[in-house]
């Protein structure tokens, strides 16, 4: 769509929709319906008033009926999304979409196509907070993402341990320590010119990342990347965490659903540890109906549906269930212990 086409079809209703989209960062059809209903109602009212101003005869006695959200169609939404995406494209932005891995709802996100993605993810935060967010993402896709256990998430205690960057031996003399917390870990420290966060600041940053739509927090308290982050960081995640020189069947940290081809951070995995086949929970029924037998399409291993990606990789273990029964809840220290046990098993293998 060229500029003439945009200017011809693009009106105040489109501008209002784009403003609402930009204020949220992401939008679903359900969220868009009341917004579009309000826009349509306002447009109908303006048309009604214009007709009455121009009329020399009988005046309309009643104004138009307001548009209800239920009257907004998917076609209405798609047309406004298309127009908004065309309008922002000259500014190196576009609207992309992905299916939510749990709710199955289609999520649309306004994406900056040129600037550094990690900087985008925390543009409203300080350099220290941006560095912390990067460490959290590193933990999700590196430390807590192994052939044995693909958590791809962190809980509050694990995030708190990332509040300061690990000090390299050569930086120890130049690192400044300002006190220590109850765990004996430095409360703040300066590493590479950046000062770490306090525990209270970690909680604030994690909450803000959820509020801004970059992280999601589950009922059990695990943080993972949101659909918005997965949409915007897709290429960067592959470049940052996958080995471009790896063999086709070699295990990689970022994997895609065999059915929908989107990144899997919540779902199921092949029982064969080194196999890369993954499925979203929301995709598996349709996928197996098409195939007829529940065997991995690559290695032919029986697909049990009991090998998980995401927080279930730890919460469905016997160790977690035993610890939960003993304590009455799933404690963060329990999660970290299960992860460490898994690392020791991998070293033995």
The global form is globular
- The total count of helices amounts to 13
Rg computed from alpha carbons, rounded to a whole number of angstroms: 25 Å
| Intertermini distance | 56 Å
Order of helices and strands: HHEHHEEHHEHEEHEEHEEHEHHH
Helix vs. strand class: mainly alpha
Number of strand segments: 11
Overall mean pLDDT score? 84
Helix content: 40-55%
Strand share of the residues?
A: 5-15%
Strand order of the largest sheet: 1-3-2
Which regions have little confidence, pLDDT < 50, spanning 5+ residues?
1-6, 169-191
Major sheet: 3 strands, antiparallel
Key words describing this protein structure:
single chain, mainly alpha, globular, 3-stranded antiparallel sheet
Describe the structure.
By secondary structure, the chain is mostly helical. Helix content is 45%, strand content 11%. The protein has helices at 3-9, 12-24, 29-54, 74-88, 117-121, 127-143, 156-160, 199-211, 227-241, 281-291, 312-315, 318-327, 332-348, and strands at residues 26-28, 93-99, 106-112, 154-155, 190-191, 194-195, 215-217, 222-225, 267-269, 278-279, 308-309. A hairpin with a 2-residue loop joins strand 5 (190-191) and strand 6 (194-195). The protein is globular.
Write the layout of secondary structure elements.
Layout: H1 3-9, H2 12-24, E1 26-28, H3 29-54, H4 74-88, E2 93-99, E3 106-112, H5 117-121, H6 127-143, E4 154-155, H7 156-160, E5 190-191, E6 194-195, H8 199-211, E7 215-217, E8 222-225, H9 227-241, E9 267-269, E10 278-279, H10 281-291, E11 308-309, H11 312-315, H12 318-327, H13 332-348
Antiparallel strand pairs: 1-3, 2-3, 4-8, 5-6, 7-8, 9-10, 9-11
